[in-house]
Amino acid sequence: MTDQKLLGALYSWGADPDKAIDRLLGDEEFYIDLVKKFAVSIDTKKIRELSETGYLDGAFMMIHRMKGSAADLSLIPLYDILDELTEELRPKKHGLSEDQLKRLEECVDSFLALLPNLRRP
Q: What single DSSP character describes residue 25?
């Protein structure tokens, strides 16, 4: 997929690449590189595991970091759910519900579908 097609796909998905590219002094290539690196780093299985086993500090830290990256990259749909889950985990009283985990996984899957040739571990 060309960079222009990826940017168009990100817009269609609900992201705002221009806003993030402006913060990167107009460096579109750098933005695309950061989006791909962020995509590779997403690990919803680990978030699920941490939440289900009660390691809420770890789940909170992972989600909070992802939220910051999603904000920096203007990946709005992902940011929105991560913001909600961050607030849910902030008191560290209970893990995420199955519905919340599924919604996160679906959002991540829809984001990753925009990057079909991405190699993930």
A: T
